[in-house]
Amino acid sequence: MSDTPEVQLDLRGILFDLDGVFYVGDEAVAGGDRVVDWVREQHLPHLFVTNTTSRPRSALVRKLAGLGIVTDEDHLLTPPRAAAQWLARHVEGPLALFVPEATRAEFSGFTLWNGDEKQRVGAVVVGDLGEGWDYATLNRAFRLLMQEPAPALVALGMTRYWKAPDGLRLDTAPFVAALQHASGVEPVVLGKPARAFFEAGLQRLGCEPRQCLMVGDDIRGDVEGARGAGLHAVLVRTGKFRPADLQTGIVPDAVLGSVAELPEWWSRHVESR
Fold first, then answer.
1. Residue 4 and residue 165: Cα distance in Å, rounded?
2. Structural domain that includes position 156
3. What's the angle, vertex CA 159, arms to CA 218 and CA 190, rounded to 5?
């Protein structure tokens, strides 16, 4: 564990990543449940923020419960939820959803594209479709983006990859990047590492950026994204962490063995109130 003992921070809220911090695949990270108990005992405002788009918030609540972590949908901030709020304010016309079937429930209040490439759409929404991507599907999204005027390209996060039980897997960003490159349409990113996503979390917590800590396993999506939005950030050596992350020039406030070490770090580096 590396840290800077002389630093005393005025922290009043925490944003926690999920995958790679509290679990890897279906395996719990040891001690994660006790950290959530500690957060509640300290009466610390907190949210679980995740770029996961393969399942709705209700499924994430059930998964956490199976790991001994009791929470509710109000404590989860996901890209589909943030995107639905943005789309309602900024887009007219049907949505073309390139997301897993379970995630479509988050967009139940919208008119959806009927599959006809001649139908005008208001937005192309791209999430972690996983093995659902093939050439035909990616090309279908590209053709829709070539409509005139071009619809919005909404990215449910820009995570490059994640760690599954069988190894690293491509996430949303590579497919968004391909569509952006081919169509010339700049994506609206509603997920980590976008500043707007972190700001949505801060608004929910009622914290200033300098008063909030992000805890994650992704040096870019979690740490660099949070630091860019003015937050403090801790990197954990679980999930997708790789030693090379420490050579990127991105400097977290601390590097912890796992989220289980957070209470001890907090007691030494955060001003008591």
1. 33
2. 80-189
3. 115
